Amino acid sequence: MKKVEFFQVINRFCRNSSTIVKAMLYGSQAKKDSHEELDSKVDLDLILIIRGEDDFYLFKELAKLSKEIGILIHPLVINEKELEFKSTIQEYKLALEQSTTIYQ
Amino acid sequence: MFEWILNFLIQALLSLLWGLILLLVALFVLPEKIFLGVIKIFKKDLVSKSQILNKVRIILDYIFNLKEVIISDLNQVESFSLEKDIKELFAEKRKLEGNLFFLDLLKGYSNMLLFSVLNSGYDINSAFMIMGQSLEYLQYYSRELKPTNSMMDQGERIQEAAYKLEAIINSIEGTNNFSDDLNLKKIKSTLKKGTEEFDSFIKLEYDKTKKQLILNNQKLADKLLKIIN
After folding, report:
1. Which of B8, B25, B134, B164 could form a disulfide with B109 if both were Cys (CB 3.0 to 4.6 A apart)?
2. Which domain holds residue A80?
3. Closest CB to B101 among A55, A74, A89
């Protein structure tokens, strides 16, 4: 799967979700060109900013999507209530800064 | 009588004027510390901007510039102990923050593991792809956890739990007997139990770390406030 196709899939996924506010890709796969093929041996590091508490359905659907595309999606789910607190932590800050927004 | 009242008012106004003049002179002549000391007798909650700014600067240097700061306006023993406490709390804060991030990542993998098992249906083989990869990352990130004063062996405990889960998955993958309905049901139930246990364990460790970080931040804020006070 090409990076651009994955963006389209995630965009659709987020539009259908009632909890996702923002989706971002970070890590090694984010550095690829949009028409480059994604590496199926390396996971897709996804930051999902969500609204609300229940993320049971979200993980269920993500696991399904991961199986469909054949690449492990690794979600870092941050509740928007905690975003301010977590943004002050170096590791989260770096991940957020180095990410590419897919959906907002 | 009228003249006496007029004289009294004039004298009162003159005294007020002299008082104001003396206050203005004092403002320029007396050192700020003495001037504020006098004013504070009447207004106890008065805060000097120039004095507080220096202290706030020290705190900002501590937090954002990670500077080694020497607290000079307390006695030597007190300032040494305060500096030591702040340094230790900052080091603990950094470790807890890093651990919280890696536990958040681990939480993501353990959730994906759990749901790949729950979603697998009859196609358990496809779930092994996600499980195998997730386990590799679980081992990798659990090694990133640093021992903290409050949770010395957290990393080791998580690594142990990840090895335990890996052993369950490997033993099942090794059987290769997924065609039988009853056997598949048993396998799925074992996998579900193993991943659920691991998932709850990671969530618990994450919550404990977050709680500890908030507590540590509060202790740090109290120590930093001591500099201002």
Report:
1. B134
2. 3-103
3. A89
Mean residue pLDDT of chain B comes to: 81
- Arithmetic mean of pLDDT, B165-180: 75
Q: If we measure between CA atoms, which residue out of B95, B110, B97, B100 comes closest to residue B205?
A: B100
ipTM value > 0.95: no
Let me know: does B198 contact B167? Beta carbons within 8 Å. Answer: no
Would you tell me which residues 6-65 of chain A have a C-beta closer than 8 angstroms to some C-beta of chain B? 41, 43, 55, 59-60, 62-64
Q: In chain A, which stretches have pLDDT less than 70?
A: 54
- Mutation choice for B interface testing from A55, A62, A66 by most B CBs within 10 A: A66
Please report how the helices B124-142 and B154-175 are oriented relative to each other, as an axis angle in degrees rounded to 10: 160
Strands A44-50 and A20-26: antiparallel
Residue B158, C-beta contacts closer than 8 angstroms, at least 6 positions apart? B106, B142, B145, B201, B202, B205
Q: What is the layout of strands, in order, in the sheet containing A20-26?
A: A73-79, A44-50, A20-26, A100-103
CA dihedral in degrees (B139, B141, B142, B144; nearest 10)? 130
State which fold the B78-228 domain adopts: Four Helix Bundle (Hemerythrin (Met), subunit A) (1.20.120)
Query: Could you give the number of structural domains in chain A?
Result: 1
Residue B75: strand, helix, or coil: coil
A63 and B112: CB-CB below 8 Å?
Answer: yes
* Residue B89 pLDDT > 80: yes
Angle at alpha carbon of residue B216, lines to B211 and B218, rounded to 5°: 100
CATH number at residue A99: 3.30.460.10
Question: Is B129 in the A-facing interface, judged by CB distances under 8 Å?
Answer: yes
Domain ranges of chain B: 1-44, 78-228
CB contact under 8 A, A43 and B133: yes
Per-residue pLDDT tens digits for B106-125: 988 888 888 887 776 666 77
